Amino acid sequence: MTDRRPATAAVQAGRPARLAGEPVVTPVHREVIYEFESAAQFAEIMADSRRGYLYSRIRNPNTDELAAAVAELEGAEDAHCFASGMAAVTAALDLLAPPGTRVVAARQLYGQTYSLLRARGDTALVDVADAEGFERALDGAGLLYLESEANPHLAVPDLPRLAGLARAAGARVVVDNTIPTPLGCTPLAHGADLVLHSATKFLNGHADALAGVVAGPAELVRPIAERSLDTGSTLSPDVAWLVRRGMKTLHLRVERCAANAAALAEFLAGHPQVAGVRYPGLAADPYHAVARRVLRGFGGLATFEVRGGRAAGERVMDRCRVALRATSLGGVETTISHPASTSHRQLTAQELAAAGISEGFLRLSVGVEDVHDLIADFQQALE
After folding, report:
1. How much is the pTM?
2. Which residue, of 59, 222, 238, 361, has the greatest Cβ tally within 10 A?
3. 59, 102, 107, 201: the active-site residue
């Protein structure tokens, strides 16, 4: 019993006592503000002279947990979470390629990233297999931007070689590691300065959370985190909790997705209606040798080109019964998409051709379904 009046009790009554026992799963911390034991402690945390929680735009237990998990998997000193993968991309570019910095990037990139870099006007785009072209382009550049496995081309850059060329030219290196995940590649070990993820994809794995993460040395992650206070690109605790939960099965999902993708790629490679298949696990794939050196496993994405162009490709998509016609990638469901009209719609016809994306080109994000059902689905879709 207290002598508090009803209005005060309505606001402050019922706070649970601290009892023995800690939750195995971190709860969702939806609070935005935190209280302190004293004015001195309040001032200390506000000044950031001691680590603590003050305001969720700055720091939150759920985003801290997710960042720590990604940092450990990537072999990074630190990490910071963002509200989306593109927010992570933009933050990395803001830090390492401010206005006036010339950027060199692989021509094979996710469409939105390609569009962002093209709009800068100071980006040199080079075919991912052209090491000599990168060496020439890096002269005077400040940043090299790569994807460890390109979306959707599935080109695999020779990360150690290209990072070495960037180092020799005095340029920093940023690698988007979304498709291989840290289980399939750790770019920092190959010479990257920063690694980033659209955590929406494989890290989350369930198509129910939008998030991004940047990882690397604390001296680079710290200013990125400080800048995010200005941009407001904060990841919500609910979404951080979902991504962290998804990561607990990452190793199981990636193993199954890769096994299914390999089997499906083998099937498609032998089908008469398929003009070509791209999957770095196939011995005939032009990036197979590089992938064996740079990647651990070959991932859950495969692409193929249907004979007959866009109309034939759309017919295959429309006939699929198991694969879902949907965007994004890395989920437990198998999805099929037409990059030229979806993820890479920003590219001109010439840019699509240069990136190896034809009108009949389809991307598969292979899920964890029964592989026999997947093969049967594409067998009937290609009839």
Report:
1. 0.93
2. 361
3. 201
